[in-house]
Structures are given as structure tokens and as C-alpha cells.
């Protein structure tokens, strides 16, 4: 049973690890922080996986856990994070290399998004991932109307940041 659970988890994590990398990139400033946050999110997902009931898609659930972990660990007043012991998870998941040399426009967008608050970052991230407002609202625990209003305000903020 335990091996089956672990195998199922590792498969789902591999299929969704790019979304975790994107969240890490939004909430970190360098490669070491990125790796630390990726590891911590993986550990938190593993710890919570036995409680995953399948009422929502794995990706929606993983977004929620990953965003909550990132937001908790990277509040503006915290510059260093405390990570859990890797032995807690007892997993060996090969991390795919993440390309840090992206096009200049993507870098500018990330810099602009990093100036937003934590909830705004999460909303933009899911919007850019083509999540519908229903899934965004469900993941963030807000209403669809609130998600739409917030997104419109964020678009205005980003325009001002990118075109001062």
C-alpha cells in the first residue's frame, strides 16, 4: 500500500513539477532559494498527500499547497527560510533542470510580478497558466467575482509597472 501511494505521488509530482518550478521562480530571487523552495514544496505535498481526497484535480490541490508553502516561507519580512529535513519525505525525485536564461520579456514580466503582493502573484500565475476563474477562485479561497475584479486591478498595476 505504502509503495503504491509513493509511486502514485511521484508520477503526479513529475507531471506537475513545472508548475512548482514556476511558483518557485515567482517567490525566489536566486537558484539556491529556488531549489530550497522546490524541496520544501515537495516535502509539504508528500506530507499532505495521504489526505488528498481527489475532490479536485491534483494540479489544483498542488497549486494550493505550493502557493501556501511559498507564501508562508517568503513573506516580505523573512529573507531566509527554514526547510524540513529531507529524510522526512524519504523520496528521491529527480529534478529536471530549469532554464534560468529566458527571453528578456519574460524576465521583465517576472520582475514586475515580483513587485505585487503574495495573493496578487498567485492570481497572476494561475491566470497565465490559463486556469479559469472558477479554478482560481477555488484554489485561492475567494469568489469568482472577486478573482475577476482583482485580476483587472492587477492588470492595471502591471501596466503601470511595465510602462511608467
From TrEMBL:
Say if the entry is tagged with keyword Transcription regulation: yes
Task: List, for all copies, the residue spans of the domain called RNA polymerase sigma-70 region.
Answer: 15-79
GO biological process entries: DNA-templated transcription initiation
Keyword terms: Sigma factor, Transcription, Transcription regulation
In this chain the RNA polymerase sigma factor 70 region 4 type domain maps to: 108-158
**Is Transcription included in the keywords of this UniProt record?**
yes
One GO molecular-function annotation for this sequence?
Answer: DNA binding
A Pfam entry, by short name:
Sigma70_r2
**InterPro entries noted in UniProt:** RNA_pol_sigma-70-like, RNA_pol_sigma-70_dom, RNA_pol_sigma70_r2, RNA_pol_sigma70_r4_t2, RNA_pol_sigma_r2, RNA_pol_sigma_r3/r4-like, WH-like_DNA-bd_sf
Domain of life of the native organism = Bacteria
**UniProt similarity note:** Belongs to the sigma-70 factor family. ECF subfamily.
Query: Protein name, please?
Result: RNA polymerase subunit sigma-70
Originating organism = Flavobacterium aurantiibacter
* Phylogenetic classification of the source organism: Bacteria, Pseudomonadati, Bacteroidota, Flavobacteriia, Flavobacteriales
Amino acid at each position: 500500500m505504502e509503495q503504491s501511494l509513493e509511486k502514485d505521488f511521484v508520477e503526479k509530482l513529475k507531471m506537475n513539477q513545472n508548475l512548482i518550478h514556476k511558483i518557485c521562480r515567482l517567490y525566489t530571487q536566486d537558484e539556491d532559494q529556488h531549489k530550497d523552495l522546490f524541496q520544501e514544496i515537495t516535502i509539504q505535498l508528500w506530507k499532505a498527500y495521504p489526505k488528498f481526497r481527489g475532490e479536485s484535480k491534483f494540479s489544483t490541490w498542488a497549486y494550493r499547497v505550493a502557493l501556501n508553502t511559498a507564501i508562508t516561507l517568503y513573506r516580505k519580512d523573512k529573507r531566509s527560510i527554514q526547510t524540513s529535513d529531507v529524510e522526512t519525505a524519504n523520496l528521491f525525485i529527480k529534478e529536471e533542470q530549469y532554464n534560468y536564461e529566458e527571453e528578456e520579456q519574460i524576465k521583465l514580466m517576472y520582475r514586475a510580478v515580483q513587485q505585487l503582493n503574495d495573493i496578487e502573484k498567485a492570481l497572476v500565475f494561475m491566470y497565465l497558466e490559463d486556469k479559469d476563474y472558477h479554478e482560481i477562485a477555488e484554489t485561492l479561497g475567494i469568489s469568482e467575482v472577486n478573482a475577476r475584479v482583482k485580476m483587472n486591478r492587477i492588470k492595471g498595476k502591471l501596466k503601470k509597472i511595465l510602462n511608467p
